[in-house]
DNA sequence: CCCCAGGTAGGCT
DNA sequence: AGCCTACATGGG
């Protein structure tokens, strides 16, 4: 994927490999918006990037270029991944073409855990609402926006607070900072194999099989996972098999079948199923 | 009024 | 181990 550093951020040259709408609207991240210029603006921890279409590519305006090179995983080439998927699953050709430039992000682990605990049995609009209220109430004031709360601040918040920002019954999970701290303080997390890391994630209150898979995929860059939610359950019966399986079994079945392509396949399909237009 | 949303914890068998 | 259900809240 072609990109280089500029005075005010990053220049991305290839539109087939990078499309902000497809990257941000595919359900892997909740803190982004379209500003008055019509540009996508994305937030991660205390950092921000504005993405402007320009010529044959995009300009990414940010003070933290190196952070966002990693965040957008710009050194991964998607052309071979797409080819491999289409080779194994020809029906995916059209779906992949419609979501050209979709990329799986490498997000912050702490922010991902919190965000996806909130996501459980919830809709994207309300997930965004709750997370925005969290930042508005507890995040550092920065230049025109709020940071995500630090771990220290977050872990001091009460169940009552989380109810106030509309987290509902998930307030109880969010307030259980002990299991979260225990996980985050473990050594060499990113060196662990997927299965081991998954077992550790499941010890966090509010993290079940689906949320654990999302964290593995969107934060730890593990691609041998297949998060199964209501949408993916439908997709499984539509495209893959009529054999009755529960969500955990569907996930296991597809990971065994597609290995390190599973994560990508899942994300293309989720976007295809949930996008409005 | 209903039903649904990127499910999970706790209790039961 | 695997199945069942309650669960807050905002939007359609």
Layout of strands and helices, then pairs:
Layout: E1 3-6, E2 9-12, H1 20-24, E3 32-34, E4 40-44, E5 47-54, E6 57-61, H2 65-71, H3 78-88, H4 92-98, H5 109-119, H6 124-138, H7 151-155, H8 159-164, H9 171-174, H10 177-184, H11 194-201, H12 209-218, H13 230-240, H14 247-258, H15 262-274
Antiparallel strand pairs: 1-2, 2-6, 3-4, 4-5, 5-6
The protein binds a DNA duplex (13 and 12 nucleotides) through helix 5, helix 6, helix 9, helix 12 and helix 13.
The helix count comes to: 15
- What form results from the Cα inertia axes? globular
Order of helices and strands: EEHEEEEHHHHHHHHHHHHHH
Strand order across the largest sheet: 1-2-6-5-4-3
Number of strands: 6
Defining traits:
277 residues, alpha+beta, DNA-binding
Summed up, what is this model?
The protein has 15 helices and 6 strands.
């Amino acid at each position: 994927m072609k990109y280089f550093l500029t005075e005010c951020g990053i220049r991305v040259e290839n539109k087939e490999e990078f499309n902000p709408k497809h990257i941000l609207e595919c359900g892997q991240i909740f803190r982004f918006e379209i500003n008055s210029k019509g540009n996508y603006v994305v937030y991660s921890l205390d950092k921000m990037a504005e993405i402007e279409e320009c010529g044959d590519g995009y300009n990414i305006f940010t003070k933290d270029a190196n952070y966002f090179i990693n965040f957008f995983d710009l050194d991964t080439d998607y052309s071979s991944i797409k080819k491999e998927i289409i080779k194994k699953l020809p029906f995916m050709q059209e779906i992949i073409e419609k979501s050209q430039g979709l990329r799986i992000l490498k997000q912050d682990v702490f922010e991902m855990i919190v965000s996806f605990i909130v996501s459980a049995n919830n809709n994207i609009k309300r997930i965004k609402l709750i997370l925005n209220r969290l930042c508005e109430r507890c995040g550092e004031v920065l230049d025109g926006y709020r940071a995500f709360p630090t771990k220290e601040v977050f872990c001091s918040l009460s169940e009552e607070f989380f109810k106030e920002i509309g987290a509902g019954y998930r307030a109880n999970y969010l307030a259980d900072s002990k299991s979260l701290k225990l996980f985050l303080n473990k050594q060499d997390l990113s060196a662990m194999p997927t299965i081991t890391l998954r077992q550790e994630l499941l010890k966090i209150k509010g993290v079940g099989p689906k949320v654990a898979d999302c964290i593995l995929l969107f934060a730890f860059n593990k691609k041998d996972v297949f998060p199964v939610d209501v949408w993916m359950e439908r997709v499984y019966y539509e495209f893959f098999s009529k054999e009755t399986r529960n969500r955990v079994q569907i996930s296991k079945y597809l990971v065994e079948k597609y290995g390190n392509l599973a994560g990508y396949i899942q994300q293309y399909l989720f976007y295809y199923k949930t996008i409005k237009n």
